[in-house]
Amino acid sequence: MLGSASEADDAVQEAWLRLARVDHDTLRNTRAWLTTVVARVCLDMLRSRAARREVALDAPLLSGSPDPEQQALMADSVGLALLVVLDTLTPAERLAFVLHDMFAVPFAEIGSILGRSTPAAKMLASRARRRLRHAQAPEPDVIRQRKVVEAFLAASRKGDFAALLDLLAPDVTARADAPATPAGVPVRLSGADAVAQQALAFAHRARHAHVGLLNGEMAILVTHQGRLAIALTFTIRDEHIATIDIVADPQRLGTNHGAVTH
């Protein structure tokens, strides 16, 4: 639904917190109640993400009989490709498609979650299928980029200095505009050690970040109160991060990246 393990954890935690505040004797079906709550939490999270971004890419052709290792890599790529394509759907389309087609949730229940009629929920899922059917698959470069950026975000969250060094090119540079720094002055760092140390300082914000497409490129996006607050964009060379640009200037974010939709 969200394409992010950490965001999924946040959604489940929020659902459990809400469950703890409810009189269980008033719940006729706890499982259905939790499904509704988790779905609505996910819907809110999807709506708080950056504005929809389109990706126009060529579909790769796979041939031959891959060995088990290749099959595992292919399966992983298909999963990442699906996440990229799902990002082209609206939050309501995505929720209707995932709940019905992947979890067999009835359209009547989906309509209740979305505050729409059953026919409207069916239409959302149908529209999602149509868009997914005609969407072009992302090329391998985009899939590899996403894996590198996701690994960088995961290492930042965990405070894993060694993992960060493995992901960074030795001559990596990181540039941050003034609003992105505590001192309010632009910063430029060079070298894997210095950039990895800075990434560790990003850990408290990384918890509220997710990987997404920004102007057709993989990026780490941090939102606050429904708006894009910080964007980290990357240049990746030979599956290592060569440059990182950190932008927090509201004017630049508003002009170049758009507000988060609701």
UniProtKB/TrEMBL annotation:
Keyword Transcription regulation recorded: yes
Any one GO biological process: DNA-templated transcription initiation
Superkingdom field: Bacteria
Gene3D superfamilies: 1.10.1740.10, 3.10.450.50, Winged helix-like DNA-binding domain superfamily/Winged helix DNA-binding domain (1.10.10.10)
Coiled coil, from the record: none
One annotated GO molecular function: DNA binding
Keywords, in A-Z order: Sigma factor, Transcription, Transcription regulation
Pfam families: Sigma70_r2 (PF04542), Sigma70_r4_2 (PF08281)
SUPFAM superfamilies: NTF2-like (SSF54427), Sigma2 domain of RNA polymerase sigma factors (SSF88946), Sigma3 and sigma4 domains of RNA polymerase sigma factors (SSF88659)
Keyword Transcription regulation: yes
Domain (RNA polymerase sigma-70 region): residue spans on this chain: 1-50
Domain spans labelled RNA polymerase sigma factor 70 region 4 type: 81-132
Family from the record: Belongs to the sigma-70 factor family. ECF subfamily.
Subunit-level organization: Interacts transiently with the RNA polymerase catalytic core formed by RpoA, RpoB, RpoC and RpoZ (2 alpha, 1 beta, 1 beta' and 1 omega subunit) to form the RNA polymerase holoenzyme that can initiate transcription.
Record-given protein name: RNA polymerase subunit sigma-70
